[in-house]
Sequence to fold (261 residues):
Amino acid sequence: MQILIIGYILLVRSQSTRGGVMQKYLKYILGLIMVLCFTPPAARAASSETAFDQQRRQMIESQLQARGIKDRRVLEAVAKVKRHLFVPASYRHLSYGDFPLPIGEGQTISQPYIVALMSELLALTGQERILEIGTGSGYQAAILGELAKEVYTIEIIDFLARQAEGLLKTLGYKNVKVKAGDGFLGWPEVAPFDGIIVTAAPEEIPAPLLAQLAEGGRLVIPVGGFWQELKLVQKVQGKIKESSIAPVRFVPLLRKKAPQP
Ligand code: SAH
Fold:
């Protein structure tokens, strides 16, 4: 099952960069097989709210605690936020699996462990102002909404920004503000931030994000091309301290094209 999903995600991603008729058909065929294989009747049985609650508890134990996530507040936030509400209906029954899932527009909701790891690395107490780049489904933003005082999140694809904004509003996250735009530039009007989390990978750490990090603040960011490294960057007495955490694989950080004259 994981191989099918990973294959599908790789195809969707390569689709967004190169064309290829074969790839297009393969994408549809794989998508169809996934929907046919995983919808009835297992999906119905696995999709009731109580079944989801149980799957979420299991996920916390076997995917997060087993891999060393310890921050009690992070574990509580993951227990509270219903990940299946952020996943498209056709993949909902896979919401608590140990893998990323497609959310449309060639983008993905990150693997639950990575969301927990990145949240833990921010070391939040509840008083912070946080910036997220790459709202996507809004799931990471909701987790941060549970963990910090204020969350500002930027998404470059308008449709995803509006969709996440609507969902977060419905769920009552008054402390999360969504903006459609290019997150490379940060959000200078509300900077500085105690924490910045980037959920798409740039080749280099964007300078505006470093500038908008408060003294003592933490930036968690995947950096690289095909091979990426998750980095923790801290600003200590004005100096930048960088450490490598783990090899990761995120969608690339996109840039908004400058308007044509
Ligand atoms: N945090 C998301 C995961 C999203 S995947 C979640 O919890 O679901 C990464 C997202 O980053 C995608 O939605 C993609 O459109 C967005 N993205 C890519 N480049 C961006 C940029 N320059 N500014 C803002 N968002 C960007």
About this structure: The beta strands are 101-104, 107-109, 129-133, 150-155, 176-180, 193-198, 213-224, 228-236, 239-248. The first helix runs from residue 2 to 17. The chain has nine helices and nine strands.
